[in-house]
Design brief:
By secondary structure, this protein is of the alpha+beta class. It has 42 helices and 55 strands. A seven-stranded mixed sheet has the order 49-48-47-50-51-52-53, sandwiched between helices. It has a six-stranded mixed sheet with strand order 14-15-13-12-16-17, sandwiched between helices. Strands 40-42-39-43-41-44 form a six-stranded mixed sheet. α4 crosses α5 and α17 runs antiparallel to α18. The relative contact order is 0.06.
């Protein structure tokens, strides 16, 4: 039957000025200074909209769904969890989009990470910062995107007022432009990017406001913080124009006077962040990009494809592209060309150096130099800017200084946008207390550090002490005073030694005086409050109890909910050796401190760090950043001396060298709230010591400009010098501050580290330098004490095991299900069968490992996929009894515990348990020194399931000859046969890093072999419970030959036909490279089938359709009576199918000149017995599929060059789908009613065709119009049949046209599809005489019979290469084929 073809689309090849100059060339207008389309226009033009979403969880959910990556994650609560910002979806029809409201918005980075986590790594994103630049002509730039299919369908929700009765949001948010590109990408942008400069200014300066609720305003004003001028530091005149301060004063006045009529909110200017985010599946071609070029030391940026659309008069701006992902590994294949394991929340991508970030570090001390030094080591970081920096950060590899103002946050935010800064890291406390993080975040710039409210823990010591009292955090007894006389009275009357006097505000780490007696303490009060020794920081003083004991510094990362402690360190505040002299900002530090045991560190984590984070969260100021707790270890227990809201200085200089992980990734995990599952890993067997070199006279007055030499000699000593108070003058390093340098050494022991650091100090020529030589003397004395052997001395690190348990506890808890809560830590796990819904259960257990696949993972350094292998091997076995997997336990054994590796493996186990629907109830980590080699470990798993007594499998009594075998696809080798695989690799001389000689280009052999085993529980359980399945065999060790008979009666035999399923090319390569026999292949490997089901013939179609709805599945064989002396399993056509799937099969020369090779496919033999490649064909239908049946019969012939691998119907439940199923052909339904546009529908069809590696497409009664881009892509591969002898009687009702014209001959025509209807090159025709008595019905029936002859012939001509479409659109024939 006739299938209409594509509608004409505007050509994308002409330039924008050319198109604009042709009347009617474009169905839209692109004018400078105007929105591209209104919503009404977008709807009229049938744009590719997928819905209206605010920028948060709903946006990410829509992205994942439209890209077809929603399997198992379609619930909104999953999206809320991944994006960590709850949104309420707007269910109103367009264009009433302004009714949408959000509780909180999300940044581009949150959206990218959220989409990755939600899709299990299948969806990746790119962010184009501040794009397009204002010098780019906006119309042409956006036109480039329109030609790709991306269109605006929503706008920003900016309100100057709120109608009565509507909710007042507490924050403004963006709504985004959404569109779907034909290549499988989703486009999102800020709508303000498609307006002119003047329109942008108008919207920002007159219409865009942020509405803050009354309770939020009053809560902020009621906090004991510095009341700064609300318009201070903002250049935007709207702060004064809108009289923000007056609004606040009025609100406060109403509160004080108890007014009945109160303002519900205040309005302030809204911030704005410009940017474009593109989402795509990893295989999308839109992920490719060009290599960047460097310009004079500026940040490397990339010219986007869209900007090539701009006119020659416009400046070609360069764009920086950056990618944010969950996990990354530098040894993986290029971006967007790798399939990730289906583990939720884990994205394994390589981030090439040209995709890296520019990071800005705020500060100029040794701490900031250490942070920049560590960040520069990240492969994800392209450049580190330091503002203002020092001589050490002036020009050092990736690191350079910046002169941007750090006090004006508006200027700083604009600088970050202009210079493509993706992350700002704030070092000192002053900008944190001034709200730098708040302001940059509001402007759309990612910033690491706590908010101004959270930073009060350091900025106000009186606040901090009161906070500790409120939340039961142990601290010294204290009092806070604004009157010096009252402070002195407190000192003299306190029942404890109140001898520590502190300025409550920020005093650069020097505002603490420890007095020897009460007179000194009162003098300190006078000095601070009356003499203003520390300026305004001393307007309030805190007087504390003098504590005695060991002082330590315990820092942690916090994501607002959880904490990740760093190794404890110890600072040395006194100027001189022996802890003598005045207090300073710190003269040195060492790490770790042996005085803090692992048990004590756990106590600090629970009683201090976690309590603090929980308290800040409860008080509405979540703490995100680094929390520093200064502690005193007294005889009465630990006490908190102070909190700092940033890295300590000099503690940072010893912590950064000991951090094993990538600091940039740690900061990202902190910002996106995933610390619980990504705790940083530290070097455990090393110690670090840093010695501060200060100017003569410090901490008093000192000279500046003193020349420093000898620094190059220090570097040669494997010692790191971090600059603090230094400057470059005419290329010479000079002093510019009190603390000038910190010399840091890392060695296996504390003593050797101190020795190396002191040697480094001695090599620096710095006249008058002041420094200590006894850093770490407390620890050295402690270590010198005689002590007995410990378990750790024997090689077993209990502390490391405890850290591992802490890391995996939240992962295990996430697997909780009905029947158990998956809480780790007890002696045994408990499962409640009744709570899980069982009535008469039978328990089923299974245990397994992953064999020598472990060796592959260990050699590749990739451990996160093994967990899925382990769970799959056990769960899939339990399913064979018809049981639901309930809980899982793992066993991890090693010689020396590497917490990072173990957490990666067990994290994979937990993720796989979630996929399988079972709880991770417990496990065992066994550290056995001497048993395993370095880096080696072993795994075992144990799964327990349950089935109702009446539902146990296999049902041996029901299984009979004639039953059908259904096969479910494997993902590859799974976890069996790897000893043979490794032997084959040795014979082939290939390493795991070599490019795979099969499969997708760009993937290594190791990556392909580590593809995780499929877990079948969620797919099969509903089918097994239906009663239609008599038996299920997991194809594991023993392959096809040994596993299927395990579930069958002895009297039955298995007949498999390997030509009926798709065999992954890895098996073809293994057989060829290893010269493995067919029998050995079938006995060792799954050969493409991970599971085989036994069903009755009557149930086969229904079960197959259920399977194919989620997974590749086929009718692969049947059961027969076993004859004496015969094998229990016969696999027919295995050799031919393996050769067909392989990369090295020779193709018979059946193609004529000008006809390209059709690519992959299966093989039949030619007359000489040599294999001949078969072309993979898909058939698109809409109804009964009578032509489909004719094509199927042709493809069944041994001589056919065509293999029909797929049937797609745009309508569910049609007869053609049944024909495909009965023929063992994969069938898919792509219902056109579920798509908002033809292009979106076509894009889905295209993705399915690509998935099945289709090479030719036959339209057999497919009653849908195909769009121009689809037809162009499949040009020369798309066949249609028309019920007339073209070029006569084109279009619909061709038979009636022939009768009306009095034609004596009609017939049918098979032709290549072109954009113009029924105009493509003709491949074959079949004539049908028109009889005088013919009606439209009788003529149509005879033409239909002719179609059944003509279409198979045409398919065969194209599939064999005898006919192809030439470049000029004409048919090219092989000479021997024309007859």
């Amino acid at each position: 039957m006739d299938a209409p073809q594509a509608s004409v689309q505007p050509a994308g090849g002409a330039s924008e000025p050319e198109l604009a100059g042709r009347e009617g060339a474009m169905p839209w207008s692109l004018q400078e200074g105007a929105m591209l389309w209104s919503l009404e226009e977008a709807l009229e033009r049938q744009t590719l909209q997928i819905g209206v979403s605010a920028c948060g969880a709903t946006a990410v959910l829509d992205v994942v769904r439209v890209l077809g990556a929603e399997e198992g994650v379609a619930k909104e609560e999953d999206a809320n969890s991944c994006v960590r910002t709850r949104l309420r979806r707007n269910e109103s029809p367009l264009p009433d989009y302004l009714l949408s409201r959000s509780e909180a918005g999300a940044t581009h980075a949150q959206l990218i990470r959220g989409a990755s986590e939600l899709s299990g790594g299948r969806v990746v994103g790119r962010f184009f910062h501040h794009h397009p630049r204002r010098s780019v002509r906006l119309g042409p730039w956006l036109a480039g995107w329109i030609r790709k299919g991306a269109v605006p369908v929503a706008t920003m929700n900016m309100q100057a007022a709120v109608p009565a009765g509507e909710e007042v949001p507490d924050a403004w948010h963006h709504q985004l432009i959404f569109g779907v590109a034909p290549g499988g990408a989703v486009f999102m942008a800020n709508p303000l990017d498609v307006v002119s400069e003047s329109e942008l200014h108008k919207r920002l300066c007159t219409e865009s406001v942020l509405l803050i609720r009354r309770e939020d305003v009053l809560q902020r004003l009621s906090l004991p913080c510095h009341q700064f001028n609300l318009s201070e530091g903002f250049e935007d005149p709207r702060w004064k124009t809108m009289d923000v301060e007056g609004q606040v004063r009025q609100m406060v006045l109403e509160e004080e006077q108890g007014s009945r009529s109160k303002a519900t909110h205040i309005a302030i200017p809204a911030a704005y962040c410009s940017g474009v985010t593109i989402f795509a599946l990893q295989s999308s071609s839109l992920g490719t990009r060009k290599q960047p070029k460097s310009r004079g030391g500026a940040a490397d940026v990339t010219q986007s494809e869209e900007e090539q659309q701009t006119s020659s008069s416009a400046r070609r701006s360069r764009l920086h592209i950056w990618l944010t992902a969950r996990d990354s590994s530098p040894d993986l294949s290029p971006l967007l060309h790798q399939k990730s394991p289906n583990i939720p929340g884990r994205l394994v991508l390589k981030k090439p150096a040209d995709m890296a970030e520019c990071v800005l570090v705020i500060g100029g001390g040794g701490r900031e130099h250490a942070l920049a030094w560590k960040l520069a080591q990240s492969p994800h970081v392209k450049q580190v800017l330091v503002a203002p920096g020092n001589a050490g950060t002036a020009d050092c590899g990736k690191i350079r200084n910046s002169e941007v103002s750090v006090t004006n946050h508006a200027i700083l935010a604009q600088f970050c946008k202009d210079h493509n800064v993706g992350l700002v890291v704030v070092g000192p406390e002053v900008p944190l207390a001034a709200g730098m993080v708040d302001d940059l975040t509001a402007a759309g710039v990612a910033c690491f550090g706590p908010s101004a409210r959270a930073a009060q823990l350091e900025a106000s010591k009186s606040f901090s002490k009161a906070f500790m009292d409120r939340h039961g955090i142990p601290t010294a007894r204290w009092g806070s005073f604004t009157d010096p006389q009252l402070a002195c009275d407190y000192i003299r009357t306190a029942s404890f030694p109140a001898l520590v006097v502190k300025a409550s505000g920020l005093a650069a780490g020097k505002g603490v005086i420890v007095a020897a007696n009460q007179d000194e303490a009162c003098a300190a009060v006078k000095d601070i409050m009356k003499e203003k020794a520390f300026g305004s920081a001393g307007e309030t003083v805190v007087v504390e109890e003098l504590l005695e004991g060991e002082e330590v510094s315990c820092l942690c990362f916090s994501d607002g909910s959880s904490v990740a402690p760093m190794p404890p360190a110890q600072d040395h505040k006194r100027l001189q050796d022996g802890d003598l002299g005045p207090n300073t900002g710190g003269m040195g530090a060492y790490c770790p401190t042996p005085q803090v045991s692992q048990e004590l560190l756990e106590q600090i984590k629970v009683k201090v760090l976690q309590k603090t984070i929980d308290g800040m969260k409860a008080e509405g100021a979540p703490y995100i950043g680094v929390l520093y707790a200064g502690l005193m270890l007294t005889k009465d227990g630990l006490r908190v001396l102070e909190f700092n809201c940033r890295f300590g200085d000099p503690e940072c200089q010893v912590l950064m060298p000991l951090l094993k992980d990538d600091l940039y990734e740690v900061l990202l995990h902190t910002l996106d709230g995933t610390l619980a599952s990504h705790a940083p890993v530290w070097h455990q067997e090393s110690s670090a010591v840093t010695v501060v070199m200060a100017s003569a006279g410090y901490p008093g007055t000192y000279a500046k400009g003193v020349q420093i030499t000898g620094l190059s000699q220090v570097e040669a000593m494997d010692v790191q010098v971090f600059h603090a108070g230094t400057a470059l003058k005419a290329g010479v390093v000079t002093s510019s501050g009190g603390r000038v340098l910190t010399v840091t050494a890392v060695r296996p022991s504390l003593e050797t580290a101190l020795q190396a650091a002191n040697q480094g100090v001695a090599a620096v020529v710095f006249p008058g330098a002041v420094y200590r030589r006894d850093i770490g003397h407390h620890a050295i004395a402690y270590l010198g004490q005689r002590r007995g052997l410990t378990y750790k001395d024997s090689g077993v690190d209990i502390a490391a095991g405890n850290r591992l348990v802490d890391m995996i506890k939240p992962l295990a808890k996430a697997t909780a299900r009905a029947g158990c809560n998956a809480e780790l830590g007890g002696f045994a796990g408990v499962f409640d069968l009744k709570a899980a819904g069982f009535v008469d259960p039978i328990l089923v257990s299974g245990t397994d490992g992953v064999g020598t696949k472990l060796k592959v993972a260990q050699a590749c350094g990739k451990h996160d996929t093994l967990g899925q292998d382990l769970v799959a091997m056990c769960v899939n076995d339990v399913l064979a009894q018809g049981a639901e997997p309930l809980f899982f336990l793992d066993y991890f054994s090693c010689g020396s515990l590497d917490v990072g590796v173990a957490s990666s493996v067990i994290g994979g186990v937990a993720a796989a348990c979630r996929l399988a629907g079972c709880a991770l109830l417990g496990g065992e980590t066994a550290e056995m020194p001497g048993t395993y080699g370095p880096g080696e470990y072993d795994l075992a798993g144990f799964c327990v399931g349950a089935a109702e007594r009446a539902s146990l499998l296999p049902r041996l009594a029901d299984i009979a000859a004639g039953d059908v075998l259904l096969g479910v696809a494997s993902s590859g080798v799974h976890s069996n046969g790897f000893s043979l695989v490794r032997r084959v690799m040795g014979r082939a001389g290939l390493g795991y890093g070599a490019s795979a000689p099969f499969g997708e280009p760009g993937r290594t052999l190791g990556e392909v072999l580590l593809t995780p085993t499929k877990i079948y529980s969620r797919l099969l359980l509903p089918i097994l419970r239906s009663g239609a399945v008599k038996a299920y065999a997991h194809i594991t060790g023993g392959g096809l030959l040994e596993n299927i008979p395990r579930v069958l009666p002895n009297e039955l035999a298995v007949d498999l036909d390997a030509s009926r399923w798709s065999i992954p090319p890895v098996f073809s390569w293994l057989q060829e490279a290893g010269d493995i026999s067919d029998e050995e292949m079938a006995r060792t490997f799954n050969c493409g089938l991970g599971a085989v089901l036994v069903v009755a013939t009557a149930d086969a179609q229904g079960v197959l359709l259920q399977l194919q709805a989620q997974e590749e599945a086929w009718v692969v064989g049947s059961l027969a009576h076993k004859q004496p002396g015969t094998e229990p399993v016969v696999v027919r056509n295995l050799k031919r199918s393996l050769r067909a799937a392989g990369p090295s099969v020779e193709v018979a020369a059946v193609q004529g000149e000008g006809c390209p090779d059709n690519g992959g496919g299966s093989c039949h033999a030619d007359a000489a017995g040599e294999p001949r490649k078969r072309t993979r064909v898909a058939v698109l239908i809409s109804g009964t599929g009578t032509n489909l049946q004719a094509l199927i019969e042709q493809a069944k012939l041994p001589s056919s060059s065509a293999e029909i691998v797929l049937v797609i119907s745009n309508r569910p439940g049609v007869l053609g789908l049944k024909r495909a199923t009965l023929a063992g052909i994969q069938a898919r339904v792509v219902d056109h009613k579920l798509y908002g546009s033809r292009a979106e529908f076509d894009a889905t069809i295209d993705r399915v065709l690509e998935e099945f590696q289709v090479e030719a497409v036959c339209l057999a009664g497919f009653m849908r119009i195909l769009t121009g881009p689809f037809v162009k892509k499949w040009n020369g591969k798309l066949l249609n049949i028309h019920p007339s002898l073209l070029p006569s009687f084109k279009g619909v009702n061709a038979q009636n046209q022939a009768l009306q014209a009095g034609a004596r001959v009609s017939g049918c025509t098979v032709h290549f599809v072109a954009e113009e209807v029924d105009s493509g090159a003709i491949i074959a025709q079949e004539t049908v005489p028109v009889e005088a008595s013919d009606t439209e019905e009788t003529l149509s029936e005879r033409i239909r019979q002719a179609e059944h002859k003509a279409f198979p012939i045409a398919m065969e001509l194209v599939a064999s290469g005898a006919v192809c479409l030439g470049p000029d659109g004409r048919i090219v024939w092989k000479h021997s084929a024309r007859n």
